[in-house]
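User: Hey, quick favor. My workstation is busy. Could you predict this chain's structure for me?
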Amino acid sequence: MTGLLSAPERRHAVRADIVALRPHQWTKNLLVFAGVLFAGRLGDPTRVLEALATFASYCMLSSAGYLVNDVRDVAADRLHPVKRFRPIAQGDVSPQRALWAAGILAIAGIGLQAALGPEALAFAVAFAIGQVAYTLWVKRMYLVDAFAIAGLFVLRAAGGAAAVDVRISSWLLVCTALLAMFLAFGKRRAELLSVADPRGAGRVVLRRYSLAGLDRLVFATAAGACVAYAVYAFRASDSIEMVATVPFVLFGLARYLYLMRRQDLGEEPDRVFYTDIPILLAVVLWAAVASTALNAA
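Assistant: No problem, here it is.
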C-alpha cells in the first residue's frame, strides 16, 4: 500500500514530453505497411518511402490522440495504479502544453498524408476524427468501444494501402478488425483483473463487462482472426506459398492467449509483442516467409 501511495519520481521536461507521446505504442502503426507488403512492392523504393511517410504520419496522429485522451482523463488517471504515472496525470506535462502539441502533430500528420493524395488524406482525417470520438464518447460504450478500436486499426491498414496506391485484400481487413477486437477484449480483461472494484478507478465501461463474457469474446475473436487469415492465405492469387505463414499466425495468437490467461499480460499488448521472444520470433519468421512468397509471386 505504501508503494501505491508514495509520490512518483518526477521526469525531466524533455523526457516527459517524449513519454507523453507514448512512442512504445507506435508499433500499432506498422499496419500501414500491410499494403506495400501484401502487394509485393517492398522492392519499389518509391512505395517504400511513401509507406515510411505514412507510418510517420500515423504516429503523429496517434500521439496527438493520446495527448487529448490523457488531458480528458487526467482526473481518473490519477486514481489508477498504473496510469497515474503518465506525464500529464503526474503533472510533468501541463494540459495546455499537451493540447498545443496535439494540434501541431495532427496538422503535421494530416498535411503529410495530403501530399500523398486525396484518398490517403481522407483516411487520415477519418482516423483523426475516430480517435477524438473514441476519447470523448465511444470508449464508454459497452462493446462499441472494441468495434471502434477495430475500426481504427482497419483505417491504418486501408490508409497505408491508399497512400502507396495498392489494393489490399478484404479478407486481410476482416482479419485486422478481428485481431484488433481480440486485443481490445484482452485489454479489458486485464484491466478488469487489475482494478479490484470496477466502480472505482479504471474505465467506466468496465462496469458493463464480466470476466466470463470477456473470455468468450477473446476466444471468439481469436478464432475468427485465424479463419480470416487462413482464407486470405488460401485465396492469395499466385501466392499459394502464403499458406506456409498460417502456422506462425496460429502460434502467435496461441502464445498471446497463454500469456493473457496464465500471466495476466494483456493490458499493454504492444509491450508483450516486443518483449516476448517467442512472439517476436514468430513475427520475424512470418514476415520473412510472407515477404519471400509475395515478392516471388
